[in-house]
C-alpha cells in the first residue's frame, strides 16, 4: 500500500481489515456498520463511518452486486489471519465452482464476530458455505444452508452433521517430530497458535506422542499467532526457557518467523538449530534457508470441499445425504532448515 498522509494518501487501496485497524474494532464490526446492522453502538458506528469517509473507502462492489443480482454464490468463511495456505485452498474451490457456473464470496472474520460473518453471508443469499479453520463447533450447528468444513477439525460428536475434508493432524505432527529425532535432535520445542485451536491440539498430541516414544525429557510448548511475527515471538519465548536444538512450528509462516529470530541471535540453521514447518506454502521454498515442511494438498482440499458442497446444494431437499469425512494424505519436503 502506498502512503502519503495519515491514512495512506489518495493512491492507497484499503481493505475492510485496514478500516477495522484504524477504528480499533473487529472486521465483523465494520461489516455490520457497512450493512447498517442495528447491533452496533452509535458511537462505534459514527467512528467507523467517519474513517470510511476520510479515506474514501469503497466497500466491495462485487459483494454488493452478488446480493442485488442473487447469483449462484457460495460463501467461503475464514476465521483468523490471512495466510497463503488459504489462497491455494480457495483456488481449488473456485476451480470446481466455475464448472457449475457458481462464484465465491470470501469473508475473513475474527472468532468473536463469527455469527455476524455468517449472517452477512446469509444476507447475500449464498447457496452454501465452506468453512476454513477456527474453533466454532457450537456455532456451526445453527447454520441453515449446506456446509462443508475444510482444513479444520471438530469433535466426533459433530462429524455426522457436516462434510469434512482434512488431514490426520496428529499423525502428521508425529512424523514431523520423529523425523527431527531421527536427525539426532533431542531438545525439540513446538510453536502453536493457542490451546483453543483444535488443529493445534491435535498437533500437540502428535508432538507428545513422538517425544514420549523417544523418552526425551525436553518438552516446551510456546504460543504464537499463525503469522511470521507469531513464530518469531514463539521462538523468543522458547529461548527464554531453554534453548532447543530443533523447533516444530505448526505453520510455515510461524517457521519463517522462528528462523528469523534464530538467525538474529547468532545461531546457524540447521547446524545449531533445525526447523520444520507445516503447510507447504510457496514462501517456505524461497526463504533462506529454505524450510523443511509437511505439505498439505491445498488445492485438492479445496476441490474436494467444493464438490461435496455442490452435491449438497443440488440435493438440498434430500436431508438423508450421508456426510463424508475425507482424510487426505500429506508428505514431507526436506529442505535446508534440517540436518
UniProtKB/TrEMBL annotation:
<dbReference type="InterPro" id="IPR010982">
    <property type="entry name" value="Lambda_DNA-bd_dom_sf"/>
</dbReference>
<dbReference type="InterPro" id="IPR000843">
    <property type="entry name" value="HTH_LacI"/>
</dbReference>
<keyword id="KW-0238">DNA-binding</keyword>
<feature type="domain" description="HTH lacI-type">
    <location>
        <begin position="14"/>
        <end position="68"/>
    </location>
</feature>
<dbReference type="InterPro" id="IPR046335">
    <property type="entry name" value="LacI/GalR-like_sensor"/>
</dbReference>
<dbReference type="GO" id="GO:0003677">
    <property type="term" value="F:DNA binding"/>
</dbReference>
<dbReference type="InterPro" id="IPR028082">
    <property type="entry name" value="Peripla_BP_I"/>
</dbReference>
<keyword id="KW-0805">Transcription regulation</keyword>
<dbReference type="Pfam" id="PF13377">
    <property type="entry name" value="Peripla_BP_3"/>
</dbReference>
<protein>
    <submittedName>
        <fullName>LacI family DNA-binding transcriptional regulator</fullName>
    </submittedName>
</protein>
<dbReference type="Pfam" id="PF00356">
    <property type="entry name" value="LacI"/>
</dbReference>
<keyword id="KW-0804">Transcription</keyword>
Amino acid at each position: 500500500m502506498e502512503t502519503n498522509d495519515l491514512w495512506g494518501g489518495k493512491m492507497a487501496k484499503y481493505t475492510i481489515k485496514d478500516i477495522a485497524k484504524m477504528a480499533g474494532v473487529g472486521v465483523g464490526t465494520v461489516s455490520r456498520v457497512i450493512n447498517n446492522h442495528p447491533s452496533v453502538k452509535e458511537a462505534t458506528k459514527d467512528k467507523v463511518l467517519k474513517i470510511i469517509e476520510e479515506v474514501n473507502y469503497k466497500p466491495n462492489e462485487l459483494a454488493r452486486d452478488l446480493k442485488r443480482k442473487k447469483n449462484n454464490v457460495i460463501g467461503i468463511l475464514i476465521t483468523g489471519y490471512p495466510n497463503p495456505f488459504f489462497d491455494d485452498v480457495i483456488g481449488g474451490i473456485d476451480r470446481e465452482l466455475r464448472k457449475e457456473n457458481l462464484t465465491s464470496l470470501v469473508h475473513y472474520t475474527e472468532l468473536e464476530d463469527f455469527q455476524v460473518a455468517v449472517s452477512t453471508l446469509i444476507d447475500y443469499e449464498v447457496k452454501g458455505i465452506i468453512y476454513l479453520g477456527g474453533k466454532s463447533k457450537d456455532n456451526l450447528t445453527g447454520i441453515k444452508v449446506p456446509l462443508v468444513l475444510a482444513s479444520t477439525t471438530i469433535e466426533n460428536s459433530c462429524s455426522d452433521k457436516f462434510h469434512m475434508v482434512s488431514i490426520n493432524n496428529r499423525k502428521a505432527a508425529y512424523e514431523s517430530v520423529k523425523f527431527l529425532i531421527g536427525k539426532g535432535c533431542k531438545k525439540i520445542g513446538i510453536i502453536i497458535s493457542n490451546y483453543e485451536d483444535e488443529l493445534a491440539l491435535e498437533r500437540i498430541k502428535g508432538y507428545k506422542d513422538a517425544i514420549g516414544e523417544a523418552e526425551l525429557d525436553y518438552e516446551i510448548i510456546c504460543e504464537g499467532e499463525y503469522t511470521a511475527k507469531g513464530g518469531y515471538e514463539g521462538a523468543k519465548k522458547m529461548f527464554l526457557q531453554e534453548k532447543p536444538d530443533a523447533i516444530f512450528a505448526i505453520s510455515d509462516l510461524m517457521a519463517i518467523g522462528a528462523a528469523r529470530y534464530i538467525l538474529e541471535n547468532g545461531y546457524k540453521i540447521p547446524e545449531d538449530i533445525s526447523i520444520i514447518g507445516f503447510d507447504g506454502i510457496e514462501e517456505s521454498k524461497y526463504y533462506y534457508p529454505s524450510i523443511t515442511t509437511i505439505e498439505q494438498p491445498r488445492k485438492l482440499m479445496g476441490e474436494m470441499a467444493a464438490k461435496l458442497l455442490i452435491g449438497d446444494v443440488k440435493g438440498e431437499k434430500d436431508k438423508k445425504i450421508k456426510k463424508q469425512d475425507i482424510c487426505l494424505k500429506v508428505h514431507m519436503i526436506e529442505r535446508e532448515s534440517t540436518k
